[in-house]
Amino acid sequence: GYETTMFFYDWRQSCEDSAADLNNFIIENEYDKIVLVAHSMEGLVSSGYMALGATQRDKIEKYVSYGTPYLGSVAAPMVCLTGMFEAMTGDIVFDANGQGQTSLGEESIVLETIAHSAVKNVVVPFLAANFASVYELFPSEKYFEYIGPYLTNERASDDLVTNAEYIMTTYEDTMSSIRENMLGCNRDMLEHAKVFHRSLYQNNQHITTLVDSTYVYSTGEHTATHIVLHDGLIYRYTNYFSKNGDSLVHQGSATIGYLPQKINVDDYDIDDDPTPHTYLFTSDLWKMIFGYLEGT
């Protein structure tokens, strides 16, 4: 068996800072050999810990992540552009026509009051824009390599009748558009996110591949894959989704471009199957992971 302990961190700060905190936690507790199990952003923190050096990596006997957005998630810029925090919690549901609403019902996304409108369109994006970790959840440069572009700018043509669409095919063009359209965008944090993700690679290989790693993921949930901006205002995203994710994280992101050492939760008898991202932290999943670690 394993002696387990929880590491708590401030999710708002940079994953790089949380990785340093994790390193101090391991040193202070005099852990020589560890097994890391990480959910969602915790996988980025764990990756940052491994990137600190060989000394840190040598302590890791096994590493398991589940639902980690290694390459980023479209939900993060969606929140910053719209204030729709439901996009980050996975609480958007879709009807047969692909039209989205929150799981609380249609009324929860209709702006019925000025106060609601202010919170959604100003307060939430402003708060998100000041959390370093949020930028580190944006699709990274590698997202474009393994999954593809995710942002389109649509502007009225000269005749004011038709629209012209401009797909942001590169990371830099996409970041430029986000800087232009995101309320309170912190350019330093956006640039640091790029640097952080680059630090997680050695010789073009993700740092987690240097230890005994397994990537747990889930599919079957509507997962946003694209955002369309019309004259700077987001107005359509429900037409662009796939079921190749867990409602927040695309399979390609959770497996770092489909690395072979991966496990699909849907192959196991787990409650809430297919398993949405926010349901991944369940006792059944813990049992599955510990059973896997113990070879049962």
What's this entry about, in short?
The protein is an alpha/beta fold. It has helices at 15-28, 41-50, 54-58, 75-82, 86-89, 114-128, 132-136, 141-146, 171-181, 187-199, 251-254, 283-293, and strands at residues 34-39, 60-66, 92-94, 100-102, 151-156, 163-167, 201-202, 205-206, 213-217, 221-224, 227-230, 233-236, 241-245, 262-264. The chain is globular.
Could you explain the architecture of this structure?
With 296 residues, the chain is an alpha/beta fold. 36% of the residues lie in helices and 20% in strands. A 4-stranded parallel β-sheet has the order 1-2-9-14. A 4-stranded mixed β-sheet has the order 6-5-11-12, covered by helices on one side. Helix 1 packs across helix 2 and helix 4 packs across helix 6.
Mean pLDDT: 80
Q: What is the CA-CA span between the terminal residues?
A: 12 Å
Number of helices: 12
Specify Rg, calculated over alpha carbons.
20 Å
Question: Helicity level, as a percent range?
Answer: 25-40%
Core attributes:
296 residues, four-stranded mixed β-sheet, alpha/beta, 12 helices, single chain, 14 strands
